[in-house]
Automatic annotation (TrEMBL), chain A:
Region (Disordered): 472-495
Transmembrane segments: 12-34, 54-72, 92-116, 128-146, 182-205, 217-235, 336-362, 374-396, 425-446
Compartments where found: Cell membrane
Annotated keywords: Cell membrane, Electron transport, Heme, Iron, Membrane, Metal-binding, Transmembrane, Transmembrane helix, Transport
Membrane topology: Multi-pass membrane protein
Family to which the UniProt record says this protein belongs: Belongs to the cytochrome ubiquinol oxidase subunit 1 family.
Protein name, per record: Cytochrome ubiquinol oxidase subunit I
GO BP terms, alphabetized: aerobic electron transport chain
GO cellular component: cytochrome complex; plasma membrane
Molecular function as annotated in GO: electron transfer activity; heme binding; metal ion binding; oxidoreductase activity, acting on diphenols and related substances as donors, oxygen as acceptor
Automatic annotation (TrEMBL), chain B:
A Pfam family of this chain: Cyt_bd_oxida_II
UniProt cross-references to NCBIfam families, sorted A to Z: cydB
GO biological process terms on file: aerobic electron transport chain
Protein name: Cytochrome d ubiquinol oxidase subunit II
Annotated keywords: Cell membrane, Electron transport, Heme, Iron, Membrane, Metal-binding, Transmembrane, Transmembrane helix, Transport
Endpoints of the signal sequence: none
Organism this protein belongs to: Lactococcus allomyrinae
Subcellular localization, as worded in the UniProt entry: Cell membrane
Length: 495, 331
């Protein structure tokens, strides 16, 4: 149970999942905030500036947590997976270094300028800095996903001197897996931004806080969510077809195909599986559906879809050394994959449906959604749905890699640091767990606080006491007030 | 050893130098926030002076780590797994420190704000100390097998030289931060920074002498590279003296540049001392050399091209940012 391997795997899962709550949240809110600011620049409407600052402050909160949890990710490979780092460093290190150099500098620099630069830059330039941050987040995703895709589908390498070496740098970026992952993940970011914005707006409307301020935001969020959800669905569909070809075992487990199917194949809507015997215990099947989903046609000419049992035999023949180490078991956790995949796909459908309906129900002619409390509650709580879907998606991707860290090349068992003690790992896992609970709670608490205060006094960085903000005067003495008025005079003079 | 390998060894050193030069003063400013800032306003003034830039300065560390992984995977793997607990503590420090800037801003009660300020200060003390501890343990030679796996014990991390090294890095960062504050703020804080720096420099002199003596006892720097080690040690002392004199003469820019260069000289000392190795083992046969630790020539070439294309832009916009926020911070 408490082996180095299990603890390191748990740590990777925990840190990745937690980090990836905040990545879509921050990238999505960066996009929404930049969009709002652009509307403000174009229309000159002060209300949009207020909205920008309100969502900007929520964005900055999530960005902070996203950045600090990202540092763990980069160091973790060396700390917990030193053997892996030695084996793939020649290939895997480069995208990480490029990510830092190309993207992280860009994000952190221009975010700093945006936060503190409201009155130092022109409107257009100030808005441009946030769009640059947004471009930076996408570049960052591209490189980190290139690294992940290479683990899923190794390309452009040769094994020499006991390690994988790079023979084509461009192959990393043109890896079909990279392109599909990038499309699927980035649309996921945007729809998260859309639903978060819409959800927060719904809660504000429900609580009767600045209703008119948040109505247009609700619609904007739903619009972004709809476009991104459709794109996300299409990209995910294409990705699944790619997975079927490059990682048939992952596909078979996710679709609950235990034995190679007949044609046309039936699709399991519900299924429970026995991991040891690789057999279905109970399932509800829809005829023809799997062929339609996989080949987009129910014809019987399609090649059959291979099942877990046959694939396991094939893999054992193909990789005799790994088979010895793994006792001939190449099967990822079937039930976990099957259900996480169903959750992701189910939420994906719901997202398209709800965003389209929401837009229809808030149309100019008959906007009844603003008044309908039950539905507002549904849309409000739905802001958590993208996170569940995204986490499920990563679980499918990463658990489905079992037993490999690099598909077909290097096993998880061979990847861990042999010299890190179980005690160290238990210690770091416990501290991370508590730390994450703490950070997550603080983040949610501050977000709720921000919502309570509404758009009043929302600032992206500390500003000297603002005479129009009542709170500045809640605790003060006369000396303070004198200084403040003097300061404001100084400020005016400097302008 | 190929020219490319040497080039990347230097690049990793340059990135760590950049990290200490820039992020060093952020830590120093963080320490000052809970030590020399007298009231709420001064705390805001202190932390406000690094607000827009601390995050981009921290990216130097991520880039250094990434570059180490990409160019010397065997070094990265041995160092990061070997110094597991120290790095873990550094990470926890970085996590706490990284969120405090934003959390302080959102905390609505004075108590809450103070809590995050204190966290910022404590983490700012801990991180440079731990970095100093790590690098000065690394250079003494660590127990390592032929495969490069470090089997560290408590004394590997904590020993006379590493504790002194940790304190020295902490002091350097603090002084660098004080010099930055003197450069970037107005009023009492500016004067007080210089005053405190003036006192701390005497402590640093003592630290540097002890450090040099311990370096001679516990490392093979003087045996392997007598001239280089001596020159760089002298450079560190000279730069400290220059910074100190500049502080006293109120030449704030000179003091700041000199204290930053002290860090560069320290990183250079470490990198030239371990050369041509990247990890020193207690059993010299197990030491990892630059020539065996690196990625292939193909990867290094690709990385070189990418770096040379991107780095100029990065330096330009970082410079622009410092230019945009060039004004002194008022109380």
């Amino acid at each position: 149970m408490f082996t180095i391997e299990n603890l390191a795997r748990f740590q990777f899962a925990m840190t990745t999942i937690f980090h990836f709550f905040f990545v879509p949240l921050s990238v999505g809110t960066v996009f929404m905030t930049a969009l709002m600011e652009t509307i403000y620049v174009k229309t000159g409407d002060e209300k949009w500036k207020k909205r920008t600052k309100f969502f900007g402050s929520i964005m900055l909160l999530s960005f902070a947590v996203g950045v600090v949890t990202g540092i763990i990710q980069e160091f973790q490979f060396g700390m917990n997976w030193s053997e892996y780092s030695r084996y793939v460093g020649d290939i895997f290190g480069a995208p990480l270094a490029v990510e830092a150099l190309l993207a992280f500098f860009m994000e952190s620099t221009f975010l700093g300028v945006w936060m503190f630069g409201w009155d130092k830059l022109g409107k257009k330039l100030h808005n441009a800095t946030l769009w640059i941050v947004f471009v930076g987040t996408f570049l960052s995703s591209l490189w980190i996903l290139a690294a992940n895709s290479w683990m899923q589908n190794p390309v452009g390498y040769a094994v020499r001197g006991g390690r994988a070496t790079l023979i084509s740098f461009s192959a990393l970026l043109t890896n079909p897996q990279t392109i599909l992952e990038f499309a699927h993940v980035t649309t996921g970011f945007l729809l998260t931004g859309g639903f978060i914005t819409a959800g927060i707006a719904c809660f504000q409307i429900l609580k009767n806080r600045e209703v008119d301020m948040f109505k247009p935001v609700l619609r904007l969020g739903l619009l972004v969510a709809l476009i991104a959800s459709v794109g996300n669905f299409v990209a995910g569909d294409q990705q699944m077809i790619e997975v079927k070809n490059s990682q048939p075992m992952k596909f078979a487990a996710a679709e609950g195909v235990m034995t190679t199917t007949e044609n046309p194949a039936e699709w399991a809507m519900v299924g429970f599986y026995n991991q040891a015997d690789k057999e279905e215990i109970f399932g509800i099947h829809v005829p023809y559906m799997l062929s339609i989903l996989t080949y987009h046609s129910p014809s019987s000419k399609n090649p059959p879809i291979q099942g877990v049992q046959e694939l396991n035999k094939k893999l054992a023949e193909k990789y005799p050394e790994a088979a010895k180490e793994l006792h001939g078991n190449f099967v990822p956790p079937i039930n976990a994959l099957f259900w996480t995949f169903r959750i992701m796909a189910g939420i994906s459908m719901l997202m398209i449906l709800l965003s389209a309906l929401g837009l229809f129900w808030t149309r100019k002619k008959k906007p009844w959604l603003y008044e309908n409390r039950p539905w507002l509650h549904i849309y409000g709580w739905f802001l958590y749905a993208p996170f569940i879907a995204i986490t499920s998606g990563w679980l499918v991707t990463e658990l489905g890699r079992y037993p490999w860290t690099v598909y077909g090349l290097f096993t998880i068992r061979d990847s861990v640091s042999p010299n890190v003690s179980v005690g160290s790992l238990i210690f770091s896992n416990s501290v991370y767990f508590l730390l994450f609970c703490f950070l997550g709670s603080v983040m949610i608490y501050f977000t709720v606080q921000r919502m309570r205060k509404g758009t009043e006094g929302a600032e992206t960085a500390y500003v000297e006491l603002d005479p129009f903000n009542k709170e500045s005067f809640s605790v003060h003495d006369t000396q303070d007030e004198e200084e403040t008025s003097k300061e404001n005079e100084d400020k005016e003079a400097n302008k | 050893m190929t020219g490319l390998q040497l080039f990347w060894f230097i690049i990793v050193g340059v990135l760590f130098s950049g990290f200490f030069f820039l992020e060093g003063f952020d830590y120093g400013v963080g320490m000052s926030a809970i030590t020399i800032a007298k009231d709420k306003r001064e705390i805001e003034q202190t932390i406000g002076s690094i607000g827009p830039v601390w995050d981009l300065n921290e990216v130097w560390l991520l880039t250094a780590g990434g570059a180490m992984f990409a160019s010397f995977p065997y070094w990265y793997a041995s160092l990061f797994s070997g110094f597991y607990l120290v790095l873990f503590l550094i990470l926890v420090g970085l996590i706490f420190r990284g969120v405090t800037f934003e959390f302080r801003h959102h905390a609505h009660s004075e108590k809450g704000k103070m809590f995050w300020t204190k966290t910022l200060g404590v983490a700012s003390f801990a991180i440079p100390f731990l970095f100093g501890l790590m690098f000065t343990s690394m250079i003494q030679g660590v127990p390592m097998d032929a495969h490069g796996n470090v089997s560290a014990t408590f004394t590997t991390y904590v020993n006379p030289l590493s504790v002194v090294g940790g304190v020295a890095v902490l002091l350097l960062a603090w002084l660098h931060g004080l010099n930055y504050l003197a450069l970037k703020t107005e009023g009492d804080l500016r004067a007080r920074s210089a005053k405190v720096a003036n006192i701390l420099y005497f402590v640093l002199y003592a630290g540097e002498v002890v450090f040099a003596v311990l370096l001679a006892i516990f490392t093979d720097f003087f045996e392997k590279h007598f001239v280089g080690t001596l020159v760089l040690l002298v450079a560190i002392v000279v730069l400290t003296v220059v910074a100190h004199l500049a502080v006293r003469a109120k030449k704030e820019m000179t003091a700041f540049i000199a204290s930053g260069l002290t860090f560069v000289a320290l990183v250079a000392l470490i990198f030239q001392g371990i050369f041509p190795r990247v990890m020193i083992a207690t059993n010299p046969a197990h030491s990892i050399l630059i020539k065996n630790a690196s990625s292939t020539g193909y990867t290094l070439t690709a990385m070189t091209i990418v770096t040379l294309c991107i780095l100029p832009f990065v330096l330009v916009y970082i410079g622009w940012t410092y230019y945009v926020f060039r004004k002194r911070i008022k109380k």
